[in-house]
Design a protein that fits this description.
Length: 268
């Protein structure tokens, strides 16, 4: 197995992409610290729950993976310092960081609320910085680490009504490149993955905000893609396979790169 003996911290792990990433990393031998806020952040669609997080960890343990559930808010320095400390105490360290937690709100630029703007910038940008701040010293000490950040196809492809989300994900994209240079001295790889439209809690939330049925929303989002129909239905597992690749030594010579897993959206 590619990740045997490694410890992976996955944020936003209660459901959706985060849970999928945790399962795939575990399947390659990694121990998992599954972290989620386990509560909603107004004014956003429902997020992961504690029950979902506990169910994920129970599933991983049943399959033989060493795993722990951590309820914490990536926006809080205090909570994330404690979360990383707990991961070290119970699992022995952090070798792989999967910065997956993120939120998206649909609002016109002249209507966006302070609450919406704060949520998207605090979770999508501050949360990534805060988590990485406490993990990076551990990786430096070991002179080994893999950081995989989740950006979005929207970070490089202009779309209306999600400008704050796109700007936040673009910030993560640039931070990824900067950290790759900064942490290279310690042989730490930093890369990002840009998903296209996938069936997830975020997609359902966007559909609700647009007043669309999920299938109608998905068809509209897929209009941006090169692959259509069944071939164009990007799945969580497609993103997770790229995360595993970047977290492994198969990608040892890759750093500062962004991988679009978006059925060709980014070339249209």
């Amino acid at each position: 197995m590619k990740l045997e003996g490694k410890v992976a911290l996955v944020t936003g792990a209660a459901h959706g992409q985060g849970a999928s990433h945790a399962r795939h990393l575990a399947a390659e031998g990694a121990s998992i610290a599954a972290l989620d806020i386990c509560t909603d952040i107004p004014p956003i669609y429902p997020l992961g729950t504690r029950a979902e997080l506990d169910a994920l960890v129970a599933e991983l343990r049943e399959e033989g993976t060493e795993a722990i559930a951590i309820e914490a808010d990536v926006r809080s320095s205090t909570q994330m310092e404690e979360a990383v400390g707990r991961t070290v105490e119970q699992l022995g360290g952090v070798d792989i960081l999967c910065n997956n937690a993120g939120v998206c709100i649909v609002e016109a630029v002249d209507e966006i609320s302070d609450a919406s703007l704060d949520a998207m910038l605090d979770v999508n940008v501050k949360g990534v910085f805060t988590t990485t701040r406490f993990v990076a010293p551990l990786m430096k000490a070991r002179r080994w680490g893999k950081i995989v950040n989740t950006t979005s196809a929207a970070a490089q492809n202009a779309l209306p009504y999600i400008s704050a989300y796109a700007a936040a994900k673009a910030a993560v994209l640039v931070a990824t490149q900067s950290w790759a240079r900064e942490l290279a001295e310690w042989e730490i790889n930093v890369n990002s993955v840009s998903p296209g439209t996938i069936f997830s809690g975020m997609t359902t939330g966007l559909a609700d905000q647009l007043g669309l049925e999920i299938d109608d929303a998905y068809r509209q989002f897929m209009a941006q893609q090169v692959f259509k129909g069944e071939r164009g239905k990007v799945q969580k597992e497609d993103i997770s396979r790229m995360v595993v690749y970047l977290a492994s030594e198969d990608a040892r010579m890759i750093t500062g790169q962004n991988y679009a897993v978006d059925a060709g959206w980014s070339i249209t």
